[in-house]
């Protein structure tokens, strides 16, 4: 999906349009980015803290495994550090990070596919508090949706994770994935229908 | 448009991804079609679950682990530096200029050394004598006085074909001066007897090669820079 062509594009950030960041936090990020580019390690640490959760969450949903998501997130930030000189501090950093995340996940997914099937994570009962029955049912449904994500093609998954889970606009998703808005809309549409059908199928199988 | 076609539109409409005219068409269809209405409702449920996935907090230990790994990775990773092309061009130009300057200096110093060696090895009277002897057969008005002014290193013997003979090589100004006034005395620097001084003075002057033909009335002068 994001083969050689995407690999060459990934470093030349051509993002347009606003990322879902507040203006003040974006200004802070730009300052931190400039300081990091000048060799300030503390500034890079600041960037790491600002974006690590978003990168981790995206990688987690793209890969379906927390361990793999950690590997991918680590790779994303190390790539950022290595290619700091290519990042334009005048542009929002988040779309660049999303693109890196999608590419890192693609690489990891390909590697893992050769090794073994991706496990779908179990629901952790310790995380449930009040209304255990309701929460278990809800958690089970979310687990099914998470599993449904893994049945999509890589392109569909990337589009739907960025659009519906990360809440980006279709145009932003298109920019990150290097596709047209029409293509992204088509991928999102197919993904939503597939997820719905998967969940319905799983619901029917439940006792 | 049938129901399967509407399913695709409904999948976009549930998140407001459809433009207004198509959204209105979907709404009208949903009012009339119970199966599509059901499809839309169940799609909304799965979409709500999907969005909840994004709201789940990422475990703090998971975040800490990534942070630790990245910090460790930074110790071995170094930011790549881009060397701008214009800097490379400037560097190459500078190196080329230096090499050129060194070559010019070496060439210049070698030329001076050759001249000095020639002056030392040839006695002052030798060139005068040889030049004078050559000029014996040529134009006597230019004669030995002109040959006095020629430095040793700048003498040469030329044997052109066709009965012509090179008789002397002279600095142009002195020859020109004598041609204009053949009876005028030599310049002060020549009459001083200091060949070294005259050689230095003439170093930058052009040379004149005088070619004598079989016809005594025809004399060819060749000016050499």
What does this structure look like?
The complex is a heterodimer of chains A (207) and B (225). With 207 residues, chain A is an all-alpha fold. Chain A has two domains: 1-119, RNA polymerase sigma factor, region 2, helix turn helix motif (Rna Polymerase Sigma Factor, Chain: A, Orthogonal Bundle); 123-207, Arc Repressor Mutant, subunit A, CATH 1.10.10.10. Chain A contains nine helices and no strands. Chain A has helices at residues 4-10, 23-37, 41-63, 66-82, 93-115, 132-149, 154-165, 170-177, 181-205. The longest helix of chain A is centred in the last third of the chain and has 25 residues, at 181-205. Chain A is elongated, with a radius of gyration of 18 Å. The model of chain A is unreliable at 1-19 (pLDDT under 50). Chain B has 225 residues and is mainly alpha-helical. Chain B has three domains: 3-58; 88-121; 125-224, no CATH class. In chain B, 61% of the residues lie in helices and 8% in strands. Chain B has helices at residues 3-13, 20-32, 34-55, 60-76, 85-121, 125-135, 143-148, 172-180, 188-191, 195-202; strands at 165-171, 207-212, 219-224. Chain B has a three-stranded antiparallel beta sheet with strand order 1-2-3. In chain B, helix 1 packs parallel to helix 3. The radius of gyration of chain B is 49 Å and the shape is elongated. Residues 124-157 and 172-195 of chain B have low confidence and may be disordered. Chains A and B meet through helix 3, helix 4, helix 6, helix 7 and helix 9 of A and helix 1, helix 3 and helix 4 of B.
């Amino acid at each position: 999906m994001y083969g050689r062509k995407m690999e060459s594009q990934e470093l030349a950030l051509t993002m347009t349009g606003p990322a879902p960041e507040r203006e003040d936090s974006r200004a802070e990020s730009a300052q931190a980015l400039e300081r990091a580019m000048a060799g300030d390690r503390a500034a890079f640490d600041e960037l790491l803290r600002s974006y690590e959760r978003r990168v981790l969450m995206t990688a987690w949903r793209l890969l379906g495994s927390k361990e793999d998501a950690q590997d991918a997130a680590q790779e994303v930030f190390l790539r950022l550090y290595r290619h700091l000189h290519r990042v334009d501090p005048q542009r929002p950093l988040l779309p660049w990070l999303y693109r890196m995340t999608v590419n890192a996940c693609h690489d990891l997914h390909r590697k893992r596919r050769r090794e073994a099937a991706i496990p779908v994570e179990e629901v952790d009962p310790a995380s449930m508090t009040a209304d255990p029955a309701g929460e278990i049912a809800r958690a089970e449904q979310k687990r099914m949706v998470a599993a449904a994500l893994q049945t999509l093609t890589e392109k569909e998954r990337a589009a739907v994770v960025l659009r519906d889970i990360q809440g980006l606009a279709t145009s932003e998703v298109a920019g990150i994935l290097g596709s047209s808005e029409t293509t992204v809309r088509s991928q999102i549409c197919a993904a939503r229908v597939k997820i719905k059908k998967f969940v319905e199928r799983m619901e029917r199988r439940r006792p | 448009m049938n129901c399967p076609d509407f399913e695709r539109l409904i999948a976009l409409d549930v998140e407001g991804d459809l433009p207004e005219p198509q959204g209105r068409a979907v709404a009208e269809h949903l009012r009339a079609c119970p199966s599509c209405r059901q499809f839309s409702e169940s799609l909304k449920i799965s979409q709500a679950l999907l969005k909840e996935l994004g709201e789940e907090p990422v475990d703090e230990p998971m975040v800490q682990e990534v942070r630790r790994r990245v910090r460790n990775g930074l110790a071995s990773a170094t930011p790549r530096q881009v060397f701008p092309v214009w800097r490379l061009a400037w560097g190459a130009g500078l190196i080329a200029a230096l090499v050129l300057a060194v070559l010019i200096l070496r060439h210049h110093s070698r030329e001076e050394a050759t001249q000095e060696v020639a002056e030392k090895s040839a006695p002052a009277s030798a060139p005068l004598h040889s030049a004078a002897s050559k000029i014996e057969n040529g134009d006597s008005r230019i004669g030995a006085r002109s040959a006095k002014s020629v430095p040793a290193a700048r003498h040469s013997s030329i044997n052109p074909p066709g009965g012509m003979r090179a008789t002397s090589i002279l600095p142009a100004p002195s020859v020109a001066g004598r041609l204009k006034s053949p009876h005028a005395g030599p310049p002060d620097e020549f009459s001083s007897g200091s060949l070294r001084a005259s050689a230095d003075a003439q170093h930058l002057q052009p040379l004149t090669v005088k070619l004598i033909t079989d016809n005594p009335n025809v004399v060819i002068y060749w000016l050499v820079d």
